[in-house]
Specification:
Structural class of chain B: alpha/beta
Number of strands of chain A: 21
Radius of gyration of chain A: 25 Å
Distance between the termini of chain A: 50 Å
CATH architecture of the largest domain in chain A: 3-Layer(bba) Sandwich
Number of domains of chain B: 1
Largest interface: A-B, 10 and 11 residues
Number of helices of chain B: 5
CATH topology of chain B: Glutaredoxin
Largest sheet of chain A: 7 strands, mixed
Shape of chain A: globular
Helix content of chain B: 25-40%
Strand order of the largest sheet of chain B: 1-3-2-4-5
CATH superfamily of chain B: Glutaredoxin
Oligomer: heterodimer
Strand content of chain A: 15-25%
Order of helices and strands of chain B: EHEHHEHEEH
Shape of chain B: globular
CATH superfamily of the largest domain in chain A: FAD/NAD(P)-binding domain
CATH architecture of chain B: 3-Layer(aba) Sandwich
Number of domains of chain A: 3
Radius of gyration of chain B: 14 Å
Structural class of chain A: alpha/beta
Distance between the termini of chain B: 24 Å
CATH class of the largest domain in chain A: Alpha Beta
């Protein structure tokens, strides 16, 4: 309610100021200028254009330290979700080929993976997506400018072309959707000179070889996961805990599976330096925090996955008065994506407190465009967003982690139902399903409202999506129990969950 | 003298051979249904007067030293497994492609001068 009131007043105030400005200076070049052509920026600009607004979108990719650059579409299309999922698929197919023999397939000789073949195919697909976006923008009459945008004042954006030419654009409203880029641990000698990040891994023409992945975020684990899956010697270096912010029991199952499947983990380790040897290999020295001793090993590649930084440095935000969160550096935004400057908005990864996800950026962008065109007052709902971590054993979830539920409601007010299950496909393949697990965190008593739902297993994303809708509708354990499962699937185990953690009973699913 | 080379070919083998003779060049190709002596075609859209005029109008934007192929697909098109479909992944005619890249314009997209220009001028 308060947020809506704020929006109304601001709109009234802005309207007055804008009327004044327009009378003094005439009309603006554009109704809307969007800085950033990623998942959010493109969705917002296309929607605005469809609603009859005159829109321009500025997209510019500053090459990575290693010189990697890419086309329109942002992180998701070029150096995130899309190439990640394709390489994850490549790795899963490797496992499937091994399983295939148990299912009767005669595979002559050892199976090996060719990085260049996979990389070329993935890169070609990404390029076709870049082209698709270009055609769509042209089709929807969105002006696309491959220029680096920055703010001059609240209605003016300055653009710098690759050749250094300056372009000025005026706009009624400005939207910032510049997202983020991977961080380098600049305090570690050799880190910048010798390491790569997720910006580079998907565009390598040659195999990264024996790789050290530093970090324990989903970026780190997903990358390490597919690298292991395609047959590369991979080590993950973790400072403290894996998947910070996620349910820690589930995070443990994810890493346990990875360890069982060949990914090496260096727990409680902090890198100290990276040196390049005469052979070209990288020697990494790190401190084992448990023993206090230094260790050393050589790798072909070092992949830093130690967090992402918002792309705000070159936007000249301070000049115009757009306030940032001091700690994260992200732009402070209200429920309607507005910033501290009336007609400037920011959303997607750049917004403080926002999920760093493509679907939320897309939806928020579309709603923002509709609000700016006066078509709706609807705000983006950032709650109940389902996600999946595409590690070798995938982990899908929606709602609260067990820890978060405990913290909000108290341990005595929640009931956690769980089950260890075995996917049918694993049986013939003689695969270990020890980490295939389901957890439904509920409010205790009554219909037992579901607070959080967690699933590790094959196709976790596909499994979780449907249950996310139930969650959005306020599903209770009763609803879950009343749902008849589809047999034989892994997903049906969610409808059969009945053993609570509190009971202390064995949660292993037995037979049909 | 134009800054690009224009090549007319008929059928997949001719196209393939002409492309291999021009390795390293920036190649654009317009695939169309065959035209008979009267200029009629089983694919009326492909030979519609304005599409050819449109393409001609945009050729000014072709990069220096590039090659523009005008390729009639020939009778083999009737076969669902023809080389154009299999190897070049053509889904229909007319299609305009930038050879070796995912850049392509299919059917109605070919009729938009701004899209054609975008393909010719894209880096």
């Amino acid at each position: 309610m308060a947020a809506l009131c704020r929006v109304r007043h601001r709109w009234k105030r802005t309207n007055c100021i804008k009327l004044l400005t327009r009378n003094l200076t005439g009309t603006f070049d554009y109704d809307l200028v969007v800085i950033g052509g990623g998942s959010g920026g493109l969705a917002c600009s296309k929607e605005a254009a469809q609603l009859g607004q005159k829109v321009a979108v500025l997209d510019y990719v500053e090459p990575s330290v290693k010189g990697t650059k890419w086309g329109i579409g942002g992180t998701c299309v070029n150096v995130g979700c899309i190439p990640k999922k394709l390489m994850h698929q490549a790795a899963l197919l490797g496992t499937a080929l091994k399983d295939a023999q148990k299912y009767g397939w005669q595979i002559p000789g050892p199976i090996s993976h060719n990085w260049s073949t996979m990389a070329e195919a993935v890169q070609n697909h990404v390029r076709s997506l870049n082209w698709g976006h270009r055609v769509q923008l042209q089709d929807k009459e969105v002006k696309y400018l491959n220029i680096k945008g920055s703010l001059v004042d609240e209605h003016t954006v300055k653009g710098l072309t690759r050749t250094g030419k300056e372009i000025m654009l005026t706009a009624k409203n400005i939207v910032i959707a510049t997202g983020g880029r991977p961080k380098y641990p600049t305090h570690i000698p050799g880190a910048v000179e010798h390491g790569i990040t997720s910006d580079d891994i998907f565009w390598l023409k040659e195999s990264p070889g024996k790789t050290l992945v530093v970090g324990a975020s989903y970026v780190a684990l997903e990358c390490a996961g597919f690298l292991t899956g395609i047959g590369l010697d991979t080590t993950v270096m973790v400072r403290s805990i894996p998947l910070r912010g996620f349910d820690q029991q589930m995070a443990g199952l994810v890493t346990d599976y990875m360890e069982a499947y060949g990914t090496k983990f260096s727990w409680r380790s902090v890198p100290k330096s990276v040196d390049k040897l005469a052979s070209g290999a990288l020697q990494v020295t790190w401190t084992d925090k448990q023993t206090g001793k230094d260790q050393r090993d050589t790798f072909d590649s070092v992949l830093w996955a130690v967090g992402r930084a918002p792309e705000t440095k070159t936007l000249s935000l301070e000049k115009v008065g757009v306030k940032l969160n001091e700690e994260s550096g992200k732009i402070l935004v209200a429920a309607d994506e507005s910033t501290s400057v009336p007609n400037i908005y920011a959303f997607g990864d750049i917004g403080e407190g926002r999920p760093e996800l493509t679907p939320t950026a897309i939806k928020a962008g579309k709603l923002l465009a509709r609000r700016l065109a006066g078509q709706t007052n609807e705000l983006m709902n950032y709650d109940n967003v389902a996600t999946t971590v595409f590690t070798p054993l995938e982990y899908g979830c929606v709602g609260l982690s067990e820890e978060e539920a405990e913290s909000r409601h108290g341990k005595d007010s929640i009931e956690v139902y769980h089950a260890f299950y075995k996917p049918l496909e694993f049986t013939v393949a003689e695969r270990d399903a020890s980490q295939c697990y389901i957890k439904v965190v509920c409010k205790r008593g009554g219909d037992q409202r579901i607070l959080g739902l967690h699933f590790t297993g094959p196709n976790a994303g596909e499994v979780t999506q449907g249950f996310a809708m139930g969650f959005q509708c306020g599903a209770t354990l009763t609803h879950l129990m009343e749902t008849v499962g589809i047999h034989p699937t892994c997903a049906e185990e969610l409808t059969k969950v009945n053993v609570s953690k509190r009971s202390g009973l064995d949660a292993t699913v037995t037979g049909c | 003298m134009s800054h690009y080379e224009e090549v007319k070919v008929h059928g997949y083998d001719e196209f393939s051979k002409a492309v291999s003779e021009r390795k390293g060049k920036d190649i654009f190709a317009y695939f169309s249904g065959d035209k008979d002596a009267q200029g009629l075609s089983w694919c009326p859209d492909c030979v519609k007067g304005n599409i050819i005029i449109l393409l001609r109008g945009e050729m000014f934007h072709l990069p220096e030293g590039s090659v523009f192929f005008y390729c009639q697909v020939g009778e083999s098109w009737k076969d669902p497994n023809n080389e154009f479909k299999k190897t070049l992944k053509l889904s229909g005619v007319p299609t305009l492609i930038r050879y070796g890249t995912p850049q392509k314009l299919v059917e109605e997209e070919c009729f938009k001068a701004d899209l054609v220009r975008m393909m010719f001028t894209e880096d």
